[in-house]
Amino acid sequence: MAASRPMVLRTGYRGKTGMLNWALHRITGLGIVLFVGMHVIAAFGLQQFGNDLATAITAFYESWGFQLFVYFCVLFHAFNGTRLALVDLFPGLLRYQRELYWLQWIIFLPAYLLPAFFLVQTGLAGG
Amino acid sequence: MQPTRTSRSAAPLDYSLWLFTRLSGLGLMLLAAISMAAAFVMGGRTLLDLPTMMRWMFFPNPNHVINSNIPDVSAGWSNPFWQIFGFLLILLASGHGLNGVRMVFEDYLRSPLAVLIVRWSLLLIWLGGLSVAVFVIRAS
Question: In Å, how far is A33's CA from the nearest CA of chain B?
Fold first, then answer.
């Protein structure tokens, strides 16, 4: 059901369901490009020169904190991208846009939070 | 939802890239699912921590997967099927990603010269990245 009044708390957020996902899709997409770029450059540097900078970049993106970020980026981008590609390719689905939006978050949250919990747990334990 | 939808009638290339983004995105997930399933079949069930899983899913190549804690990967991955498969993944992923970067840039850039510079730079980065990928895959 659509809310009959705009859902504005004190966050200043005035978009409906689409805006948050649009912004997150963009941020997570750029996050993936950032990670893959660092990964390719650092792997090349390690293999060819083995220098300190490449080692430092590798240690940074292999840290559990950055893994949390990368996993969020990949998973959110994949889920949101699936929904958006399906709706774009089959416009008949537009009727169920709101349902698909909530379905996406209902699947995404456990799929992200469960591995994230174990990442934090092993990370804090020094694994 | 996406502002690009209105560009369907604007330019033929824009529409092709709009379609490419959707199809390559779905295709990438299909390829990633296949390589993950193959990793399970080839005996990786007990070794799939998050980085290992990502290595397997998004670049199933011996030179890449060897960085995981896996005894021997060369047997399963050193064959033309996974070489072509890996190249296809890189091709779709880099095209999808760099085209996305182009779209983000073009949403904020006003000057046509800047847009031109961004486009050519991304094209060069794309071709350079693809040659590195071919080199890595051929060496594996």
Answer: 6
Residue with tokens 């957020």: A13
Structural domain total, chain B:
1
Task: Give the ipTM.
Answer: 0.85
pLDDT above 70 (res A109): yes
Contacts of B10 (CB under 8 A, 6+ apart): none
Please report, for chain A, how many H helices and E strands are present, in that order.
Answer: 4, 0
**Architecture of the domain spanning A17-124:** Up-down Bundle (1.20)
Over the stretch B93-140, which tens digit does the pLDDT of each residue have?
999 999 999 999 999 999 999 999 999 999 999 999 999 899 888 887
Q: Distance, in angstroms, between A110 CA and closest chain B CA?
A: 16
Flag whether residue B98 sits within 8 Å of chain A, measured between CB atoms. Answer: yes
Task: Report CB contact under 8 Å: A88, B98.
Answer: no
- Segments making up each domain of chain A, as ranges: 17-124
A33 neighbourhood in chain B, CB within 8 Å: 97-98, 100-101
Percent pLDDT > 70 in chain A is 86
A8 three-class SS: coil
- How many CB atoms lie under 10 A from the CB of residue A86? 13
Q: What angle do CA A79, B45, B48 make, to 5 degrees?
A: 55
Query: Hey, what's the torsion of the CAs at A100, A104, A106, A110, to 10 degrees?
Result: 170
